[in-house]
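A reminder from the course coordinator: this example appears on the midterm review sheet, so study it carefully.

Given structure:
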């Protein structure tokens, strides 16, 4: 399902498009190596009735993979469907988290039907210090609909200081109720060299999501004073 292609392109409203990878040629940025787990208290799908209440010490670990390797200025795509959904609650009446809509997506699928409480995450590796502007390509039928009221996006352990998008201009289009993708700027961070974790915490509803985009600048340069 991972689609990290080796060219910089213009991103349309209909899909995340094609972007830089971490190496030369057609090398994919995804690695098979796990960079540790992400633990949290267990979340069960809405359709699943637990046989017994979980103990306070029980934890579920997400397999958070490195899905992009940042090695120069440019744009990098992380497919939303490549995030581990084992920490997600299934919306009532849905059959699964993955959909293949007729509306174009960057990797052929998107994630949907996620309800609160849920958490997803992915990791990326920065080969040098750099600035990264994070984007999500998402859709919601309602308009206006506050993204910040429903989802928290934050980097590493900064759950107390999530990004603030102030975005609410979603809504349907003619013939397209659920996959009218919007390019939402989540925010920008100065990122240090190393592996970082981008977290998505669902506290209300969750928009159908095609992918995430990382726009990298000032790679390998000193931070502005």
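Designed residues:
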């Amino acid at each position: 399902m991972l689609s990290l292609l080796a060219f910089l392109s213009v991103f349309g409203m209909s899909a995340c498009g094609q972007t830089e990878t971490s190496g030369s040629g057609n090398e994919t940025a995804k690695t098979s190596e796990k960079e540790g787990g992400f633990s949290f208290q267990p979340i069960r799908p809405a359709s699943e009735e637990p046989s017994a209440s979980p103990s306070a010490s029980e934890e579920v670990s997400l397999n958070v993979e490195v899905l992009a390797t940042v090695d120069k200025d440019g744009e990098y795509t992380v497919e939303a469907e490549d995030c581990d959904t084992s920490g997600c609650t299934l919306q009532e009446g849905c059959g699964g988290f993955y959909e293949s809509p007729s509306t174009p997506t960057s990797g052929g699928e998107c994630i949907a039907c996620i309800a609160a409480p849920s958490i997803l995450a992915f990791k990326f590796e920065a080969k040098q210090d750099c600035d990264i502007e994070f984007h999500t390509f998402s859709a919601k039928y309602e308009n206006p609909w506050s993204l910040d009221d429903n989802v928290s996006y934050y980097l590493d352990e900064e759950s107390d200081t999530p990004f603030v998008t102030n975005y609410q201009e979603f809504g349907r289009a003619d013939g397209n109720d659920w996959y009218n993708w919007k390019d939402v700027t989540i925010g920008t961070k100065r990122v240090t060299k190393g592996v970082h974790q981008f977290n998505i915490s669902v506290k209300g509803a969750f928009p159908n999501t095609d992918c995430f985009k990382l726009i990298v600048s000032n790679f390998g340069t000193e931070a502005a004073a």
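The longest helix spans residues 147-150. The chain has a mean pLDDT of 81.
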